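A favour, since you know our structure tokens better than I do. It will help me judge whether the discrete encoding reads sensibly. The space below this message is yours for that.
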Amino acid sequence: MLTRKTVNTIFLLGLAVFVSLSFFKPISWPAFALLMASWFLLTLGGSFFIRWNYHMTSLNSNNEINKPQVAITFDDGPHPEYTPKALSLLEKYNAKATFFCIGKNIEKHPELFKEIIRQGHSVGNHTFSHANTFGFFGTEKVMEELTLTNKLVEGISGLKMALYRPAFGVTNPSIARAVKKLGLKTIGWNVRSLDTTFRNEDQVLKRITSRTQNGAIILLHDTSAKSIAVLERLLVFLEERKLQSVTVDQMFQIRAYE
């Protein structure tokens, strides 16, 4: 994948070539516009598609794994109605998952958050506010959000979280700097369920199962009845395929906590 540094270098070289050539022969404005548009579209795509590893490196799947394992992950909880249902299903099928929780939801439901940990699942930082404008926050504001959530979790559980998942999967230079300064490891995905969209249960399940293989990281949300219904059918699918759902840190052999 093209990184931001590589794309910026190519763009600047192209711009330098255009400027140099313009001294000998006029360069049409559409050529400059095309160069600028290409840079903008690549940067925009790199900000919204975490698998590109454009602004920062994320663990999106484990292609080198030699075990029949996948990692189910949940974003946006804990939710008082649906997280307990997810935990019940995971326990029924002897599956483990990673919950990337929003700080303000942890603050509202600390006992439920502790129950996630008690049942042997891993937890990670999914920002404090999950604000729609998070992608526009500066480095200091991003650090403030992540630090607030980590301190909250440490106070509740004694654990110092080391895993981070960007809100909406959005990355940019400010977020990259904040994550680096805090020493967090970013976790992405390679199977996006789109369970929060208009797609129905069958469509979401088909999307997941058609993309799931050893080493996959599956993105779900523990925030709706549809997602819980999909989870149950997914767990049956994994059981039939003899694929085990494990925590992200187990699949990558990394530390979930400092």
